[in-house]
Specification:
Two copies of one chain form a homodimer.
Chain A lengths: L4 H9 L4 H8 L3 H9 L6 H11 L3 H5 L6
Helix pairs in contact in A: 2-3
The structure holds a DNA duplex (30 and 30 nucleotides).
DNA sequence: TACATATGTAATATATACTTGACATTTTTC
DNA sequence: GAAAAATGTCAAGTATATATTACATATGTA
């Protein structure tokens, strides 16, 4: 549920692996995997860090996503 | 640290108390207080719920905030 | 095919977001 | 200024985001 394909696309546009993005934002590779898969409901702090690295806005990457 | 005055302003524009906003998004009053004060680093799910109630975007309410 | 790299995922542990209840303090309203 | 409403805050508990380790599967590449 709530698979976030937008992060994956933005990450691949930057030619980064999950491991590289994870390190850039300071979390584990497994955490990045879970976030892209929609298994985790990340904190806003982490979302902001992801946006910064991927040069996207919060709304572009997370707006309207329906976590439950 | 990271006091979020934007939420407070948007909340007051809607003429809502912390308790009313808290109930509208499904958390406790204390949690809303802590978020406005910057004591909590909320989840994106909760941020999205707050934006929905206050008719704001994620970037308007949370963009660039420096939680540490 | 074989090897390397990337990603998924399970188990256990820890940090912290969030709850509940209760009381103190501040702000508003009469 | 007093009562009421709103907000701050503390303590103890629960839920969950995240870490670590380890292994499995997928995907690319020689």
């Amino acid at each position: 549920m709530a698979k976030n394909i937008r992060i994956k696309i933005a990450r691949i546009e930057k030619d980064m692996t999950q491991a590289q993005l994870a390190e850039a934002v300071g979390v584990s590779r497994q955490t990045m995997s879970a976030i892209e898969k929609g298994d985790y409901n990340p904190t806003i702090k982490l979302c902001i860090a992801i946006c910064k690295v991927l040069n996207k806005t919060l709304d572009e990457l997370f707006g309207g996503i329906d976590y439950e």
